[in-house]
Write a structure and sequence with these properties.
mainly alpha; 65% helix; DNA polymerase, domain 1
Length: 151
C-alpha cells in the first residue's frame, strides 16, 4: 500500500501558475483569473488531493454557484480553470486524475424569445429612419463642402 502523501490543489498551484506563464503563454489577466478561480474552488469544496477530485466536486461547485445566482459564464470560467489545473497535474506532474471529458461547463439557460408585432416593428423602423436621416444629411453636406474646398 502506498502511504506517500498526495499532492493537494494548493501544493500544485504555484507550479500551475508557472506552467500557465511559461508553457501556455497565457496573458497576465488570464493567469490571475485562473488562480483566483482555483482559490474560490478550494473555498467551496476544500483543498483536496488532486487524485481525489471527482465529478461530484464539480457538480457541487455548479450547484452552489447556481444557488447564489451565478451566471453560466462565471461558472464556466471556474470549471475551465479547474480543468486546466487537472490537465497540468496529469500531463506535467504525471498524477492520475479523473476523466477530464466528464467535466463540462454549464449550458446556458433557454431564454424566452419575444417577437415584435407588425405595428411595433414598423414604429421601430420609422423611428430609426428618422434618427438616422439628419446624420446622413449632415454627412452629405460635409462631403460636398470637403469636395468643393479640395479643388
Amino acid at each position: 500500500m502506498d502511504n506517500k502523501p498526495q499532492a493537494t490543489i494548493s501544493q500544485i498551484l504555484p507550479g500551475f501558475v508557472e506552467y500557465m506563464w511559461a508553457e501556455k503563454r497565457f496573458a497576465a489577466a488570464t493567469v490571475s483569473k485562473y488562480k483566483e478561480n482555483i482559490l474560490s474552488f478550494m473555498r467551496e469544496v476544500g483543498d483536496l488531493p488532486v487524485t481525489e477530485l471527482g465529478l461530484v466536486h464539480i457538480v457541487t461547485l455548479k450547484s452552489r454557484m447556481a444557488a447564489r445566482g451565478a451566471q453560466e459564464a462565471r461558472m464556466a470560467s471556474m470549471i475551465f480553470a479547474i480543468k486546466s489545473l487537472l490537465v497540468y497535474a496529469r500531463d506535467v506532474l504525471l498524477i492520475r486524475v479523473m476523466e477530464l471529458s466528464a467535466i463540462r461547463a454549464p449550458k446556458p439557460l433557454r431564454r424566452q424569445v419575444v417577437y415584435l408585432s407588425s405595428d411595433e416593428l414598423q414604429t421601430s423602423a420609422r423611428r430609426k429612419h428618422q434618427e438616422s436621416r439628419p446624420r446622413l444629411e449632415r454627412k452629405c453636406m460635409e462631403d460636398i463642402q470637403e469636395h468643393r474646398f479640395a479643388r
